[in-house]
Known about the structure:
This protein is mainly α. It has 2 domains: 2-88, RNA polymerase sigma factor, region 2, helix turn helix motif (Rna Polymerase Sigma Factor, Chain: A), CATH 1.10.1740; 98-176, Orthogonal Bundle (Arc Repressor Mutant, subunit A), CATH 1.10.10.10. The protein has helices spanning 2-14, 18-40, 44-59, 70-88, 98-106, 113-128, 132-143, 148-155, 159-176. Helix 2 packs across helix 3 (44-59) and helix 8 (148-155) packs across helix 9 (159-176). The longest helix is centred in the N-terminal third of the chain and has 23 residues, at 18-40. Mean pLDDT is 79; it is low at 91-101.
Amino acid sequence: MQNHDDWKLMQSVARGEQQAFRAIYEAHKRKVWGICVRMLGATPRAEDIAQEAWLKIVANADQYRPIGKLSAWVCQVTRNICLNEIRRTKWNENLELEIVEEKLADEVTPENIMLNIADKLKFEKAFESLVPQQRAVLVMFVHEELSHSEIAQELNITIGAVKQLVFRAKESLRRTLKDIL
């Protein structure tokens, strides 16, 4: 039933109804923003790409089909725009993963605060050094908890390629961060 309601809402968005857009925006703005920040870093460019994602969502609202969750469709559109941005430009900006935040949260004591800050900076630098496609796949696998097959389908690559990208990204991070892990 929810999928049918989402479909009706998206049809209203396609007709240009502002109230319908507001409902979609309020329900999914954090997801769109989160994907952009995790894939592109907390930069003005991430803000621009988030706005571009919303424009694309509205422009393609009539293409939404209620076979899956609306949130999955919104996330897919956003990820695709982020991946296009990654492909369009070669960049080395800061990205953060929740892995570091969880690791730091587990160890937060007054004695470890300075070490944790240094560890986080080391992780960010190591993460920046990954190939853009490795960063994107790792974000999708670890943060968004997508399966190998879901990632393969979204990126139009084989499951084996996804597994290889995840493995190589993790190995690269392990090698670079062996002193803090």
